[in-house]
Amino acid sequence: MCIETAYKISEYLNLAFRWFHIIAGISWIGQTYLFNWREKTLPLEVDPDADNNVSVQLWMVHGGGFYLVEKQSKPKIMPRTLHWFKWESALTWISGFFLLIIVYYMGGLMLEPDSEMGELTAALIGIGVLILGFGIYRLLWSSPLGKNEYVGATISLILIIGLFISMDQIFSSRAAMFHIGALFGTIMAANVWIIILPAQRRMIAAVENNQQPDMLLGAKAKNCSKHNTYMSIPVIFIMISSHFPVTTYGNTDNWLMLGIFILIGWAAAKWMRG
């Protein structure tokens, strides 16, 4: 296969996965924001004739119909059809990881032109960062330090900036920036599949067995969902940073720009959650 043909195939794959990644990401983050808005808006008014198990209700109008949303801590019976919000996160992460492979691990953008490091070594380090980063995240927020939101957030920000500066020494600045975004996305997807969904399954099993669900499981899942909201806005910033290299990863103070936009994202997410 000639170089020109290989390049065209790579570009088509890049376009296809990037398009799919954006669509999946919109679906996932859009749902996240919708549920955050509901949590913030729900405690308004409860129909006096509603079941005692209904804590809050919310009427909405969209398109050609009206919708009633109820929040229950423990339904008396499980509905026949229960919608799970999970595939959006999986498809977003999978398409994003393929983009990492196409653009960085195989696309020549992982390292600076004068780097002596091999591309395979760089790719393995990049993947290791994603795995190790999630492990450190879980250790931090499961430790006593994570009990205080502000202490945990401060330590997280220091670790993120330190990681970016370290990667910027061995990778290209663009690759370093995007691996921070990939780390956020990995943590968010892992939160859904490793923490939130198992907690929901155990709560559902308790209801089906006429037992009281463990509310600690719900609190743990909600906390991970909150973290996902906090990371979503910085992820969007990193996604568009390739269009503004001078002011983002190409800036001499790129680590400071990253930190500022992370803080802006966290502040916006905190306001969004109320």
Question: Can you put this structure into words, describing what you see?
Answer:
The protein is mainly alpha-helical and 274 residues long. The chain has one domain. Helices cover 68% and strands 6% of the residues. The protein is built from 7 helices and 2 strands; from the N terminus they run H-E-E-H-H-H-H-H-H. A two-stranded antiparallel ribbon has the order 1-2. Strand 1 and strand 2 form a beta hairpin. Helix 4 packs antiparallel against helix 5. The termini are far apart.
Keywords:
274 residues; mainly alpha; two-stranded antiparallel sheet; 7 helices; 2 strands; 68% helix
Per the principal axes of the C-alpha atoms, what is the gross shape?
elongated
Q: Topology as H/E string?
A: HEEHHHHHH
Number of strands: 2
In total, how many domains does the architecture comprise? Answer: 1
Brief characterization of the structure:
With 274 residues, this protein is mainly alpha-helical. It has one domain. The chain has helices spanning 3-41, 87-105, 119-142, 149-170, 173-208, 215-240, 254-273, and strands at 54-62, 65-72.
Helix/strand layout:
Blueprint: H1 3-41, E1 54-62, E2 65-72, H2 87-105, H3 119-142, H4 149-170, H5 173-208, H6 215-240, H7 254-273
